[in-house]
Design goal:
The chain has 7 helices and 15 strands. The protein is of the alpha+beta class and 263 residues long. Helix 5 (201-210) packs parallel to helix 7. The longest helix is centred in the N-terminal third of the chain and has 30 residues, at 2-31.
């Protein structure tokens, strides 16, 4: 009888343990923080010592740009970024944690990273960018859908834009149309200007009839951009249906001027 009682007790105890473990796993899964993805302007590489090699990138027409943040006491003249055309970049090592930063043009003008929408109030009437490093660091709250669409979707929504050059080349080979490659970047005045121009009916008609369109993020594809002779956002390269370069459009044109040039 004692053996039966012990077996019954052990069986009940096992059920309690299994139920408890299942509930714990379920609660942990529900409370787990969503994965954090760094902004396209920041490259992060974990290091063996537990720190992170971080490369910040920023496009500007300024002659000098500095990186300032919580990691360097917000010094405006300490971490000067290297320049390649209109692209500035610098690489530093940072520990795990939540870091705030901004760019400083000419050592005096504070500007936000336009590609990083993770921001916090700095108590001075403006905001700072936030970078989160580490496995146990919670991701920021989800951005409003309208803000996400504004930074990713082209204004000229009536046009079909391919996300890769290869896809555009395949379409051009089938249709015989020319290829227009446009490098954009949220926050770039030249890029934003042409996003509006593409939506003009005069331009839209020419693009729809004669071109296969490709739209690439300059910051994410800067190496490819340099290989193609593009050194800032807001520039268009035009190719024939076989991929042979025809022209580059770097100057600001009115809708009528652009339509005539593309005909």
């Amino acid at each position: 009888m004692r053996m039966c009682g012990d077996a019954k007790f052990s069986w009940r105890a096992a059920i309690v343990v299994i139920v408890t473990l299942s509930l714990s796993v379920h609660l942990l899964a529900q409370s787990a923080a969503p994965a954090y993805t760094p902004p396209p302007s920041v490259d992060v590489k974990p290091q063996p010592d537990g720190t992170y090699q971080v490369t910040f990138k920023y496009q500007s027409a300024a002659s000098r740009v500095f990186l300032a943040g919580s990691f360097n006491d917000w010094a405006t003249n300490k971490d000067e970024m290297q320049r390649y055309g209109n692209l500035f970049y610098t690489t530093i090592n940072l520990p795990e944690g939540i870091h705030e930063y901004k760019f400083v043009e000419e050592g005096t003008e504070w500007v936000l990273d336009p590609l990083n929408m993770d921001r916090v109030d700095n108590g001075l009437g403006s905001k700072n960018n936030v970078l989160r490093l580490g496995r146990n660091i919670a991701a920021p709250s989800a951005l409003p859908p309208a803000l996400t669409r504004a930074t990713t979707a082209p204004v000229a929504s009536g046009l079909q834009w391919f996300p890769t050059i290869e896809a555009a080349r395949q379409s051009a080979a089938q249709t015989g149309k020319r290829i227009l490659l446009f490098f954009y970047m949220p926050g770039s005045k030249s890029s934003d200007y042409y996003e509006q121009v593409f939506a003009d009916p005069v331009v839209t008609q020419v693009l729809r009839e004669k071109y296969v369109l490709v739209r690439l993020n300059f910051m994410e594809k800067n190496k490819l951009a340099y290989q193609l002779g593009v050194f800032r956002a807001g520039i268009m390269n035009v190719y024939d249906s076989k991929g042979t370069p025809l022209m580059q459009i770097a100057q600001r044109l009115s809708p009528t001027e652009l339509a005539e040039k593309l005909k």
